[in-house]
Design the sequence.
């Protein structure tokens, strides 16, 4: 049998780490991702199943961390759920088994690239990249926005910690945009 | 222009895509309404100087369709609703 080795979104064997001044960009290849959408009229069933399975379903524009499942809101009655890749590589199947027919679950892991951004304050970087009022939105804020013409999900973990999900096929372009903006800040 | 999204609050209009007149929700039944009604639905639009109800899609946001009531002269937006709620209130959506 062929011995296959997965490549990251940037085409490398391992995740990229880029440091620009005080900014550290870490590619996260260790996250599994799936979308969960409540079927019509079944939200209460889904909420009950999610609670017993330990899957958070945060309010609109929210992110809720948990173990193993964290989640952020993406649309009315829809969430993205993330978990460690090592233990939850088959996240869609696991969620489907846990949530039953109250939800529609779609595998998302290989559709996205995840970057964790870390610096003392990310506001000057993000105000150059997108129209989110990063300084004023609370911790645990999650939204879809546009960076360099790419639709991305931005999760504010803290003033100096952000997780970005961008389209995997444009991973290099998104990273480049981050690097260019960072070079103009620092 | 800022659109006050009913769920997400004020959002820049550049996140949205404009579709057109919200009367698109009122599609006639093609089997019974007759070709004239369908022709009017497809091609006839009023072009008011004043209040206009129109469909906007939050493409770079939560992907919801909105019905925005906007004054085409002043660009003042007086009402924003989820198109889902509007359609269901009319019995259009299941």
Sequence:
């Amino acid at each position: 049998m062929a011995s296959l080795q997965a490549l990251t979104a940037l085409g490398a064997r391992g995740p990229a780490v880029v440091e620009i001044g005080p900014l550290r960009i870490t590619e996260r290849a260790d996250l599994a991702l799936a979308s969960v959408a409540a079927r019509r009229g079944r939200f209460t069933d889904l909420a009950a199943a999610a609670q017993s399975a330990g899957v958070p379903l945060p309010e609109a524009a929210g992110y809720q961390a948990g173990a193993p499942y964290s989640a952020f809101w993406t649309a009315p009655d829809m969430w993205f759920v993330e978990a460690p890749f090592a233990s939850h590589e088959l996240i869609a199947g696991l969620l489907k088994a846990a949530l039953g027919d109250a939800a529609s679950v779609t595998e998302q892991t290989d559709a996205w690239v995840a970057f964790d951004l870390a610096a003392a304050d990310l506001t000057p970087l993000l105000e150059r990249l997108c129209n989110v009022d990063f300084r004023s939105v609370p911790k645990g804020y999650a939204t879809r926005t546009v960076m360099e013409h790419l639709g991305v999900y931005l999760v504010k973990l803290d003033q100096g910690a952000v997780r970005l999900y961008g389209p995997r096929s444009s991973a290099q372009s998104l990273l480049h945009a981050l690097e260019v903006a960072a070079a103009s800040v620092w | 222009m800022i659109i006050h999204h009913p769920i997400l609050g004020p959002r820049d209009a550049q996140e949205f895509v404009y579709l057109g007149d919200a009367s698109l929700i009122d599609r006639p039944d093609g089997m019974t309404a007759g070709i004239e009604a369908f022709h009017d639905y497809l091609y006839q639009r009023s072009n008011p100087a004043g209040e206009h109800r129109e469909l906007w899609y939050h493409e770079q946001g939560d992907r919801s369709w909105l019905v925005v009531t906007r004054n085409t002269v002043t660009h003042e937006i007086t009402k924003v609703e989820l198109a889902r709620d509007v359609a269901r209130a009319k019995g259009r959506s299941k």
Observations:
- The longest strand of chain A covers residues 150-158.
- Chain A has two domains: 20-29+112-185, 31-110.
- Helices of chain A lie at 43-53, 85-88, 91-99, 123-129, 171-185.
- The two ends of chain A are 49 Å apart (CA to CA).
